[in-house]
Specification:
The complex is a heterodimer of chains A (about 260) and B (about 575).
Chain A (H helix, E strand, L loop, with lengths): L19 H17 L5 H14 L3 H7 L1 H17 L6 E5 L2 E4 H27 L2 H10 L4 H29 L9 H32 L18 H24 L1
Antiparallel strand pairs in A: 1-2
Chain B lengths: L8 E9 L8 E8 L4 E5 L6 H8 L2 H4 L4 E8 L2 E2 L5 H4 L3 E4 L3 H4 L7 H11 L4 H14 L15 H13 L5 E5 L7 H16 L3 E5 L3 H4 L4 E6 L2 E6 L1 H4 L2 H7 L5 H8 L10 H13 L34 E9 L5 E10 L4 E5 L6 H6 L9 E6 L2 E2 L5 H4 L3 E4 L12 H11 L4 H14 L15 H13 L5 E5 L7 H16 L3 E5 L3 H7 L2 E6 L2 E6 L1 H4 L5 H5 L7 H8 L10 H9 L1
Parallel strand pairs in B: 3-8, 3-9, 6-7, 7-8, 13-18, 13-19, 16-17, 17-18
Antiparallel strand pairs in B: 1-2, 1-4, 4-5, 9-10, 11-12, 11-14, 14-15, 19-20
Classes of the chains: A mainly alpha (about 260), B alpha/beta (about 575).
């Protein structure tokens, strides 16, 4: 049963109360920091995001939602560890395949950076109501229509996941075996992807009609019902973030 | 001198032709609907009801390309040159799928209603007043701060209607608004539309359900795009019109006709019972026996199911079944059921009562949190769904979750191919399954070129072709017109006659009473009633049924209103026969 829209988790935490652009800027700062700061900072960045999640009571949900991304990260680390080109400090040999220190380090750093970005973005989505973000972006001059379409696309992800699960159930109930050889898995893709695409198109048609019926395409100047609070503390925070961006660039240039 | 005001909506010689189609979707429609009238549009699937709704609301030709002939006048003004933005202020439209009507980004119903006002540029200071008024008028003020996505289908559809009415149109058009709702949700939406019409809104609703059409002031019946009747619903849906078209005659209309009473009484069990009572105290009338199958649609020719696979009949044992979804929602709270080989069981209950969750345990799609499920003596825990599919066939509610092949025949062959049945068996099963659902002539057609009701039959055939020992159907009659329902019913009968078990989840009590030997009613994850239809659908159980969003079948409701003791007749023929006695 749905209890929230998209990824948003309703709470009244300090992070939920921050203005969407403050949180968006913070997420971008973390993204930049993950790639510009030395790898030794990654743990601190990750700890900061997780502490933020703990303070809102969202760490468990964050980790559960990160599962798919974590599988990807593990595969990045493993592939790099064993197949890193130019690695010569061998830690382990499994026949012709060798685990190298350089590969392991590259995999951990690359994976760590992606993990920081993934967690920061998820925490942003968990604590920011899509509608608040939409209003905040429109107040800053974004096209309301474009902002709505982009946010709807983001919100479609959980809906597509639910539809994909329903299709998987329906096809298995007709005897489709999931798993086995790679060839078998590839063959099983068509009955899964086909209905997902066609069903989504049918859904989109009715959703488009419904939006038009609500005047979405009226072309009239739009008004806003939702007021997004932007307290002085948030404005101060954004100035701090701007300074932190400058600091980040200075640190990055100094290190190089 | 001032003449009479023009009707709220007038259609004059209205015709619609879609590009590339040989015949028009609508042709020569003339209709005038007054302010505050509630008008129904009936007809079989494909008759042109949805097209009529779209063209009246201006979506054709502005959003959907088609050639339009004739005129649509709103309050005396032609709408041909109006933009959609201008039209939506005067004509609002609501579609069939509740969840698809909502913006899906709004955290509260209040903000959902504000969405349309924002798009029309209504000043913010006006919004709360208009929203509060709309919520109060529609009797959903208690939902104002709820999350739209977490509401039931019936509640969502009422919110969708409020979201349109808050924009201030004088005409509300609805395209099968109750297709996906349980009886309680359907009744709530029907009552709401009736009230809005009384308040001055002109309501035009394309529907199949007598519960909605019966409240209409008038009813337009379409057949292949042409209007074939324009009359009070009792007459428009009666045997002289709908019966001739091969559509479904509502049960109580058939009863009223058979008793020589006004067929307009055929939508209100209490009123019909009162008329029957009055006549019983006066001069006896000549009750005719309704022709076999008069109520509902004519039964299609029976196609016996001839098994191809050697499937021994299997029993199903469910003991202490508990299921919890991630997040802790307890959908099943200790269900015990024993289903004999070859039994037919209808599972009924409001949306969210646990019906589908229970059914998904029958082929291992869900695993019990507690308790166990055995099919043919075998515990399904740990059995792959694809393996269980050899014994238990499961037809899902939404056919679009399954269909992907280029032709109907290939789609139906998907199941037998997965089971690696010999080619000769597979071909025989595909042919028999297609014959059973009446789609032999469409075997080369792309499934997505068929309408929803036919796509549901394709999905059903694709599971029938597995020739399972147990057939599970999730809402098989949703979206079906009368003939489609009769087809599904005949198929249930045929499959059961071949010794196979059939279990169906349904909101249609008449369908349950007519085609199943056992009815299981669920509420909040528990079984509250279990027995033969005659034992479950009794006047004494009316309150228990209402507590899970259900109502007695119409014939039983008349019997209850007449004060009859159980067992009461469940169909038109039984009711009329008992009245004659």
């Amino acid at each position: 049963m749905l209890t929230a829209t998209g990824y948003f988790r309703p709470r009244s935490s300090w992070l939920h109360r921050r203005h969407p652009t403050t949180k968006l800027l913070t997420a971008f700062w973390l993204l930049a920091a993950a790639f510009l700061l030395p790898p030794s900072a990654l743990l601190a960045l990750l700890a900061a995001v997780w502490l933020g999640a703990v303070s809102c009571g969202l760490l468990g949900g964050l980790l559960r939602s990160s599962r798919v991304g974590l599988y990807l990260l593990v595969s990045i680390v493993v592939v790099n560890a064993f197949f890193f080109p130019g690695g010569h400090d061998f830690l382990l040999a499994l026949g012709p395949i060798r685990l190298t220190r350089e590969g392991l380090e590259a995999g951990l750093v690359g994976g760590g950076r992606i993990l920081v970005v993934l967690e920061a973005l998820l925490l942003f989505l968990f604590t920011t109501l899509a509608d608040d973000l939409l209003e905040a972006l429109v107040q800053r001059g974004a096209s309301a229509r474009l902002a709505f379409v982009v946010l709807s696309a983001v919100q479609m992800v959980p809906r597509l996941q639910a539809k994909a699960a329903a299709i998987l159930d329906a096809q298995q109930a007709r005897g489709l075996a999931i798993g086995g050889s790679i060839g078998g898995r590839l063959r099983a893709l068509v009955p899964l992807v086909g209905p997902l695409l066609l069903g989504t198109l049918i859904d989109v048609r009715e959703r488009t009609f419904a939006l038009e019926a609500r005047g979405f395409g009226s072309g009239l100047p739009r008004t806003a019902y939702r007021l997004v609070a932007d307290p002085p503390a948030d404005r101060a925070l954004r100035w701090l973030l701007a300074a932190a961006f400058v600091g980040l660039i200075v640190v990055a240039l100094t290190i190089r | 001198m001032t003449g009479a005001p023009p009707p709220a909506l007038r259609l004059t010689g209205l015709g619609v032709r879609y590009p590339g189609r040989s015949r028009p979707a609508l042709e020569g429609i003339d209709l005038a609907v007054g302010r505050g009238e509630f008008f129904g549009v009936a007809g079989r699937n494909g008759a042109g009801k949805s097209t009529l709704a779209l063209v009246v609301a201006g979506f054709i030709p502005r959003v959907v390309r088609a050639r339009v002939e004739g005129e649509v006048d709103v309050a005396g003004r032609p709408t041909r040159t109006a933009t959609l933005a201008e039209l939506i202020r005067e004509v609002g439209i609501v579609f069939a799928t509740p969840a698809n009507q909502l913006s899906s980004s709004k955290p509260t119903v209040r903000e959902e209603l504000a969405f349309g006002l924002e798009n029309l540029g209504v000043p913010r200071e006006e919004m709360d007043g208009r929203i509060d008024r709309a919520l109060a008028e529609l009797g959903i003020a208690d939902l104002a701060e709820r999350l739209p996505a977490a509401l039931s289908g019936g509640e969502q559809q009422r919110v969708a209607i409020a979201s349109i009415l808050v924009m201030g149109p004088g005409i509300l058009v609805l395209d099968e608004p109750t297709a996906q709702l349980d009886p309680a949700g359907t009744e709530a939406v029907a009552a709401l539309l009736h009230e809005r019409a009384d308040a001055g809104i002109t309501v035009v609703v394309a529907e199949h359900k007598p519960a909605v059409l019966g409240r209409a002031f008038g009813c337009l019946v379409l057949d292949a795009g042409r209007q074939v009747a324009l009359d009070a619903p009792g007459r428009a849906l009666g045997s002289a019109v709908m019966g001739q078209l091969g559509g479904a005659v509502p049960t109580l209309v058939a009863v009223a006709e058979a008793l020589g009473l006004d067929p307009r009484l055929g939508f209100d069990p209490a009123a019909l019972a009162a008329a029957i009572g009055q006549r019983a105290t006066g001069a006896p009338g000549a009750a005719r026996t309704p022709p076999a199958g008069a109520a509902g649609a004519p039964t299609p020719p029976a196609v016996p199911w001839q098994p191809v696979r050697d499937q021994p009949p299997v029993a199903i044992e469910i003991e202490g079944l508990v299921h919890r979804y991630p997040g802790g929602v307890e959908a099943l709270r200790g269900v015990d059921l024993a289903i004999e080989p070859g039994e037919t069981v209808a599972i009924v209950g409001r949306n969210g009562s646990g019906k589908t969750t229970l059914a998904k345990h029958l082929n291992g799609l869900l695993a019990p949190a507690e308790g166990r499920v055995r099919v043919g003596g075998r515990d399904l825990r740990g059995t792959a769904v694809a393996e269980a599919a050899r014994t238990v066939g499961f037809v899902f509610q939404d056919p679009d979750d399954q269909l992907f092949n280029r032709s109907v025949a290939r789609e139906v062959a998907f199941g037998p191919s997965n089971l690696r049945l010999p080619a000769a068996d597979r071909d025989r099963l595909v042919a028999r399954a297609l014959e059973s659902v009446g789609l032999t002539g469409e075997s080369a057609t792309n499934p997505y070129d068929l309408d929803l009701s036919a796509r549901k039959l394709v999905a059903l055939a694709s599971v029938l072709a597995i020739d399972p020992a147990v057939l599970v159907l999730d809402e098989p009659t949703t979206g079906q017109d009368g003939p489609g329902m009769a087809r599904v019913g005949a198929l249930v009968d045929a499959f059961a006659a071949a010794g196979r078990t059939v279990i169906a989840i349904t909101h249609d009590m008449e369908f349950a009473a007519r085609h199943f030997r056992r009815v299981v009613a669920m509420r909040e994850g528990r079984v509250i009633l279990d027995g033969a239809p005659e034992a479950v659908f009794t006047p004494g159980n009316a309150a228990a049924l209402a507590s899970t969003g259900l109502a007695l079948p119409p014939a039983a409701a008349v019997a209850a209103a007449l004060g009859w003791a159980a067992p009461v007749p469940l169909d038109a023929e039984g009711l009329v026969a008992r009245l004659r006695d």
